[in-house]
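Team,

Forwarding the record for the chain on the shared tracking sheet. I've put the sequence and predicted structure together so nobody has to dig through attachments.
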Amino acid sequence: MSANIVYQKCIDKGLTIAFAESMTGGGACYEMVQIPGASKVVLGGMIVYQNEFKNTWLKIDKNIIDQYGVVSDYVARKMASSIRDLIHADIGIGITGNAGPTMQDERAGLSAFISIFFKETFYDMQMIFEDLTREEALQLTIQSLYEKLAEIL
């Protein structure tokens, strides 16, 4: 999987990663920590499944969540920058979305937003989950994250 490629690129460049995950529930971080030596790259992460924890732990203002929607590029960016700064990592990852069957935010439909914050630049992606099962949507999101990270690094 691409997590191995990202791990090796981070080792080669001396980079660290921090994760703020909502929809994926820690799955993106889990992909990386399965690799022996992952502690050299992964500094930590948070599962912020409920909006309350996006607000209290990551300091994302409730008004921002209300204005943009919890499943939005803006909230994913705030998650990525907040976790990077909080944990002092080189790379911050923010993932928020609706994998179904119920939705946390009806405005976005079945979709996810991924934001990677690296070298003061945001790299954003949106995934749309038409005709995918919940498990397929989660796996697609995690795989897409690592493919994008491998490309960026």
